[in-house]
Fold:
Amino acid sequence: MSETISVPAGERRVVRVFALDMRPEQVRFLREEPGAIADALGDGDLDPDHVVILKISDLDEVGLAGYLTEGSGVDAAEVEAAREKLDALYGHVLILHSRAFHDRPAELHPASRLRLIATFGRPATDWSGPPIETESAKPQARPPSPREARGQARRIGAIVFAVFVALVLLTFAMVLW
Structure:
């Protein structure tokens, strides 16, 4: 067993990269066997949807650094600071996102064949921006509700019916006169 890694409750936007020092068939077992990744990391309650195992040679021109910045949203400056470690990796890596812990605290006890290479933070999304000045963004008069539209249609129908009845009665009165 290697060192213990503490994960605080509610941790967000953290990505951990582990080197997998194992044969391809052992990596395949980690990918395919339910619970194998959780056992290898020493935490039985991991969400496997937030754990990725990659073969570095499959990343082609993008490379691991590109995958982390473009695919996982890690800050490029952090990746660049760890570039030497990342470029030295070969074989397979395991990428563990904070969401795998379900917002709970955890103590990881990775197996000896899993080495923590780096821990990265993902920047929060900046939702601020200038106000939108286009015509379509300006407040519009709200359309009438379906109930109001039906009421208006009934009133118009009643008026048309009343005018029609009045014309029929007027015509009938003129014929009788």
Notes: The longest strand covers residues 114-121.
